[in-house]
């Protein structure tokens, strides 16, 4: 248990206990950690406080919607409700913001704390995922208040950890991450079946992934990119969210350090950036974004502005290569 978080754990417990209605949000274009942390916390509250009303909010992701359903809400639903966001670093990325300043807001996250928008901000950048942080919160609640979890909560936490660690291959995988995963695997869920279902894709998306391999470009030494236009997405019948799911396909390219997708969404271009070493969240922060040092997102007005972002990436990669002789 992370002892430095205990005062916040206690504050969160008290707010949940005193609230009859709790509404949980996640970030836009949710990934497994967003789904897993939101869903696991909701069910943790439900089974330990069965008298409370718990509502989950957020647009569905095609590859993850089998995990649980969200609800449509209106402004009146937020009257006297406690609001909790999980895995959402900054306020603009919250999916569905019908709550107001009258609602007490709890933020639970593991991204660098650039936007402490909550009344309580439980943020720990040392954990692999928000799901790992939720599990640590559970350990405190189990020790202090006899909380329990079930196999579905364990499954949701596990997929969030698997997602954000790249199946335990990324550098954010720690000894504690593996310990938590091993504890979760003691519960009765079919790990292989769940992961396979998450990663099953349609034929149109499979063909689009061939497009990724055929059309990515090398921008400079160690840096690659792919521009995806609306015509490209229309041709293959894929959505921006489905496009983003292929970002790590380029990871295995020899000598690659940083790569990104620029996805045209009409009135803006969303940029997904990934790295094997150079810090990229500061770059994302300069372009209306943020995230982790090795996994971030940004937003630019158009492809012309995206070229400036590419220049920043190239400079960062060049400095990184110079300072790391093995490259």
From TrEMBL:
Entry-linked InterPro entries: DDH_dom (IPR001667), DHH_sf (IPR038763), DHHA1_dom (IPR003156), Oligoribo/pAp-PDE_c-di-AMP_PDE (IPR051319)
Domain DDH: 21-161
Residues annotated as domain DHHA1: 235-318
Domain of life: Bacteria
Gene3D superfamilies on file: 3.10.310.30, inorganic pyrophosphatase (n-terminal core) (3.90.1640.10)
Record-linked PANTHER family: BIFUNCTIONAL OLIGORIBONUCLEASE AND PAP PHOSPHATASE NRNA
Protein name: DHHA1 domain protein
Naturally occurring in which organism (per UniProt): Gemelliphila asaccharolytica
């Amino acid at each position: 248990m992370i002892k430095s978080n205990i005062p916040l754990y206690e504050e969160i417990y008290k707010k949940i206990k005193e609230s009859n209605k709790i509404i949980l949000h996640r970030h836009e274009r949710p990934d497994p950690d967003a789904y897993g942390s939101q869903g696991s916390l909701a069910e943790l509250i439900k089974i330990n406080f069965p008298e409370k009303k718990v509502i989950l909010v957020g647009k569905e992701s095609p590859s993850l919607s089998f995990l649980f359903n969200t609800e449509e809400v209106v402004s009146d639903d937020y009257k006297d409700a406690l609001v909790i966001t999980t895995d959402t670093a900054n306020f603009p990325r919250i999916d569905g913001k019908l709550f107001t300043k009258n609602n007490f807001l709890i933020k639970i996250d593991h991204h660098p704390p650039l936007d402490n928008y909550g009344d309580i901000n439980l943020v720990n950048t040392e954990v692999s995922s928000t799901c790992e942080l939720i599990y640590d919160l559970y350990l405190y609640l189990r020790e202090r208040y006899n909380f329990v979890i079930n196999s579905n909560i364990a499954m949701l936490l596990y997929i969030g950890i698997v997602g954000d660690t790249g199946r335990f291959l990324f550098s954010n995988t720690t000894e504690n991450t593996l310990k938590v995963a091993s504890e979760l695997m003691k519960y009765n869920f079919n790990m292989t079946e769940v992961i396979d279902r998450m990663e099953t894709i349609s034929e149109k998306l499979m063909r689009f992934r061939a497009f990724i391999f055929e059309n990515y470009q090398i921008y400079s030494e160690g840096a690659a990119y792919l521009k995806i236009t609306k015509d490209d997405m229309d041709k293959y019948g894929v959505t921006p969210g489905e496009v983003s799911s292929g970002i790590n396909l380029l990871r295995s390219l020899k000598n690659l350090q940083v790569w990104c997708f620029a996805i045209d969404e009409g009135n803006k271009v969303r940029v997904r950036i990934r790295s094997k070493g150079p810090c990229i969240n500061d770059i994302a922060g300069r372009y209306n974004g943020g995230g982790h040092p090795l996994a971030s997102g940004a937003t630019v007005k158009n492809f012309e502005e995206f070229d400036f972002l590419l220049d920043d990436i190239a400079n960062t990669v060049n400095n990184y290569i110079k300072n790391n002789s093995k490259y």
